[in-house]
Every structure is written in C-alpha cells, then in structure tokens.
Amino acid sequence: MRRREFITLLGGTLGTSRLAAQTQQATRIPQIGVLSPGSGDKSDASLETLDAFGPALREIGYSEGQNIAFDRKFADGDANKLSGLAQQLVERRVDAIVALATPAARAAKRATSVIPIVAIAMADPVEDELASSLARPGGNVTGTTFLGPELVSKRLQLLKEIVPGLSRVIVLWHPRAYGERTMAGMLKEIESAALSLGISLRFVPVASPPRQIIAFRPCL
Q1: What residues have CB less than 8 Å from 84, skipping those under 6 apart?
Q2: Which of 61, 123, 175, 187 has the most CB within a 10 Å radius?
Q3: Domain interval for residue 81
C-alpha cells in the first residue's frame, strides 16, 4: 500500500470518528493515539515513519492543534510497556490508534475492540490474529503488512549472494515480537533456507533494550 493510500485510509477513519465525536461534543477535535515500541527521540529511525503521515494529513485538511490532536506513546524498546500504554490511550477515549509494527498493533487490539486501529508494517496480520483474512480483515484493525515469514528465507538468500563464502550467521530476534504462529513460521522458514544454503545458524534472543552495543564480524 502506497503512502498516499495509507493516509487516505487514515483520513477516512478519522472522518467517521470525527462525525461521531461532533454529534456528542461539537467543540472536541479528533484525538489520535500513536503507539510505538521505539523511543520518541531523534535517534530512533522508526520515528521518521510516524512523523511522515503528519504532513500528509495536512494535504487532506488536518492540522495538528487546529482540527486534530495526537497523543503519542513510546515504549522505549520495552515491548512489555505496550499493553499499559495502549490502555492509557483507550482510557483517553482517542478516536483512532496508529500502531507501529505488530507488537503495538497486538497491544492495541487487546486493549480495545471498538476504537479503529491503523497498523503500520505488520508481519502477518492473519497468523498474528489481527485480521480474519487479508481480503476481509473484519474487526477493528487495518493497515499495511510485509508478510514476514515469506520474506525471511529470501533475506538469507540475498545475504548468501552478497557474501558467497558465508557459512555461519548470527540471528538476532525478539521472541515476543509477533504472535506464536508467526514466530514459528519465521523460524521454520529461515532454518529451512539455511539448510538448503549450507549455512549454520546461531539464534541470539534480544527481548529488551541492550545495555551495550555488541559488534559481530561476518563468519566466513
């Protein structure tokens, strides 16, 4: 889904929510919750993704502080904080929630089945129980997906093409980044690809913000 289509999708969600809000309280402007696993400072590359739709919303008539407001919540790299932050947005009665990546989308969906959720860059929304199907999502979650499991083996193949003599790969992964079925699918895909490519894998779980940066050199 292209950026303009995504913004149009969010704008349509806001329009529906805004009409309902205006019926209840004419002076209230739409409140949009933003939920991210990352941090809110400029060192976090994901912040650029969240900031990108701000200027685009202005193209369709929304200006922050005038006819739309944002309530931004950041987990600072700790996925365990997402559920509490999502609940705060629900208690604030936001009109829609923009969730960055699958962990944030799952936390938002657990917190509410009513407030519209627009998720950016989900892995597999069906396997992660965020949507009934891609054709008919149902529920209150929509957004974009990169269908993670299908691309994992391709990434390993590309790495092998770049480094032909590659024999060992360290895989950094977050055990709870996605749903159990999606994570199992990703692990199965990369293990199968590694076997066919003659590559040995070492899995290193990273479940919380690192206390220090660890550098790995290619294993040839």
Answers
A1: none
A2: 123
A3: 3-145
The domain that holds 140 is classified in CATH as: 3.40.50.2300
Portion of the chain with pLDDT greater than 90, in percent: 31
Which residues of the chain are under the pLDDT cut of 50? 21-24, 211-220
Q: What is the pLDDT of residues 21-55, one digit of tens each?
A: 444 455 689 999 999 998 888 777 777 777 777 78
Residue ranges of the alpha helices (H) in 98-147?
101-111
Which amino acid type is present at position 63? S
Collect all residues with Cβ–Cβ distance below 8 Å to 29 and sequence separation of at least 6: 18, 21, 66, 67, 68, 69
Residue 72: C-alpha distances to residues 35, 51, 67, 92 (Å): 6, 11, 17, 12
Determine the length of the chain: 220
Is 212 inside a domain boundary? Answer: no
